[in-house]
Amino acid sequence: MASVPEKYKPLTPYLILSNEHAKRDPCVHFWSLVYFVQRAIEIDKASPECATFLGEKLKYLEEFKAQNRQIREITDELEAQCKLEEYSKKLFSFADNNDRAEVFNKSSSTPFCFCAFERNVIKAFHSAAHLMDILTIFGELSEGIAEMRKYARWKAAYLFNCMKEGRVPIPGPMADSEEKGDLQGKSTDLTNNAARPSKNQTEQALSPQRNESLNSSHPTNDYEKSLARTEQYSNAQKFCKYAISALEYEDVNTAIDNITKALELLKGFIPLQNAGNNQARQFSISRRQCMDQACMECSSSSIFLTH
């Protein structure tokens, strides 16, 4: 197999992700390579070295798809999107939960160093962000996924720099501080520079403010609550897509199951909407009463003036 052309080196993380899942997960293996090829074509498809390399990958993808047509996540883009989204969220949750649980602060070594498990947490943030990049194959990311990707990129960069410098990282989101400067201009990917966040991405990822107490390990601010609501809407849409896909295969039971899940998610928003509607009605009634009172006062004034 030909070595990766120099022009494609920034895309190496996606090739590594594909290779890591070659035997573990055909869906991740296939679509990671699809994303790599699509991006590589945008960079260079004409030079002999790149054309040869792309030819090998395209041939492999065609053969792999033909040999795995029984796997719906390979042949059905909707199924693939749902599978990759779910997997990326699992990786993100694993990394985020361990980070917020201050797993990095439990090392007794001096000077501070990262153990294998802590390195896996960093890798999980990286992999989650890369999987969310791959999701763009199927269209624009939802607001919730896009925010999650920004945070995963920033957190991976921050933790990686802490690891290189032997510093104890601060768990969870971080307020705008001197640490922000540590992320600028440094290599942050575990394999190369491909996943380094830009200055704007870093600033956006740092925007959720938090109490700097290290004992706080659960999201409580309005930003994260809003993000959670967005994710609920996104999940409801996902279940509806699952149902539509199931109907295409005449799988009625699966369709009903997913529609039911979507309805359960949406029912949670009904009290909020009703409360908002009640407030709007009360405001309208109060406004009308004020207008009626004003008209009566104006009428009384007119009568007084005419006499």
Give a short overview.
One of its GO terms (cellular component) is endosome membrane. With 307 residues, this protein is mainly α. The chain has 11 helices and no strands.
Characterization of this structure:
This protein is mainly alpha-helical and about 300 residues long. The chain folds into four domains: about 5-75, Serine Threonine Protein Phosphatase 5, Tetratricopeptide repeat (Alpha Horseshoe), CATH 1.25.40.270; about 75-220, Alpha Horseshoe (Serine Threonine Protein Phosphatase 5, Tetratricopeptide repeat); about 225-265, Immunoglobulin FC, subunit C (Single alpha-helices involved in coiled-coils or other helix-helix interfaces, Up-down Bundle), CATH 1.20.5.420; about 270-305. It is about 65% helix and about 0% strand. It contains eleven helices and no strands. The protein has helices spanning about 10-20, 25-45, 50-65, 70-75, 75-100, 115-135, 145-165, 200-205, 220-250, 250-265, 270-305. The longest helix has about 35 residues, at about 270-305. It is flat, with a radius of gyration of 26 Å. The model is unreliable at about 175-225 and about 295-305 (pLDDT under 50).
